[in-house]
Amino acid sequence: MSKLGRVLVAMSGGIDSAVSALLLHEQGYEVIGITMKTWDYASSGGSKKETGCCSLDSLQDARKMAVDMGFHHFILDIRDEFGDAVIDNFVDEYLAGRTPNPCVLCNTHIKWNALLKRADGLDCEFIATGHYAKINHENDRYYVSKANDLHKDQSYVLWGLSQEAMSRSKFPLANMLKSETRKIAADRGYTNLAKKAESYEICFVPDNDYRGFLKRRVEGLEEQVSGGMFVDRHGHILGSHDGYPFYTIGQRKGLGKAFGKPMFVTDIYPDTNTVVLGDEEDLARPSLAVSQINWHKYTEIDPHQEFITKIRYKDAGHISNIVTDGANLNIAFTAGVKGIAPGQSAVIYEGDDLVCGGIIKNSLFANLLNDPR
């Protein structure tokens, strides 16, 4: 075994994980590659050609890299685990009127668990992925920090990682720009990888049509949720809609009706199949509550200190104060924040360091129908 140790590298077939494996191999680690099969595109019922991390081409690309570099490569079938945890949660959340983030759940509860279990079986001290993020260790705490390439930073989706997972994880691309990653691939002769397009779609919704996926997944869903109403925040009926699961907070396009002015989904009530519409300013909320907290840099928060809270992956972040409320956190913003969607992740930063993260439960003024404004 290498003096540096043995590392199990998650290889999706894309450029980031491939270059991560290549760099670790060149640094002198004993590398073992593993590609996780999470989903069959054919079973999604979508119309788009099979692409992304679970396609046959991606599996072959990952295996070819391993063969070229002379290290072992395995394919791990985790479709059952993935389906039970990620897809079932995805469907359940939409049926509850929330907006899920399956990538967070997949990263932190499926892929890492599968990697750690397989790493133990192969006597690997470490696991590695192609994420653009950093892992730091301070005051007996491991925590994720933002990558050097802020345009590619993926720290937001890693808030659910456990202390054990972080203690054994390596992110070889932490200090690199995406352009540097592409150059390394090209310089080593992997020109196809260097030019490979990136996919930002949910892997099990290849045509990016989550409404169609829900209809195919839940038999009779359209009939079950038909007859719902659009209303304004005072409860005045504005028209009928296709069913509450087919709308998300902040949505403007695809409402199916013309209202004479831009209208936005501000709240969703599954119990009454009601979707509330309002002006853009009606999306702004001063606070939110977060559950399922996972702590990174600290295990408690000073309510007088200001932090930055991101409510979605591409969110720039908002100045906020945080108060612990039992197992939950209450986050108060210094200015109203638009588009807070229950089910999404709220991730709290101190500078570039991830303090903690959790799932958004609700926002202030959640019951707009009873709001006297």
Please give a structural write-up.
The chain has 373 residues and is α/β, with parallel strands linked by helices. It folds into three domains: 6-195, 3-Layer(aba) Sandwich (Rossmann fold), CATH 3.40.50; 219-281, SH3 type barrels, CATH 2.30.30; 284-370, Beta Barrel (Elongation Factor Tu (Ef-tu), domain 3). The protein is built from nine helices and 17 strands. The protein has helices at residues 15-27, 56-69, 79-95, 102-121, 163-167, 178-187, 191-195, 210-217, 221-225, and strands spanning 6-10, 30-37, 72-77, 126-128, 133-138, 141-146, 169-170, 228-231, 237-241, 264-269, 274-278, 285-295, 306-310, 318-325, 328-337, 345-350, 353-363. The strands form four sheets. A six-stranded antiparallel beta barrel has the order 12-15-14-13-16-17. A five-stranded parallel beta sheet has the order 3-2-1-4-7, with helices on both faces. It has a four-stranded mixed beta sheet with strand order 9-8-11-10, with no helix packed on it. Helix 1 packs parallel to helix 2 and helix 1 (15-27) crosses helix 6. The longest helix is centred in the N-terminal third of the chain and has 20 residues, at 102-121. The radius of gyration is 22 Å and the shape is globular. The chain starts with 5 loop residues before the first strand and ends in a 10-residue tail after the last strand. Residues 365-373 have low confidence and may be disordered.
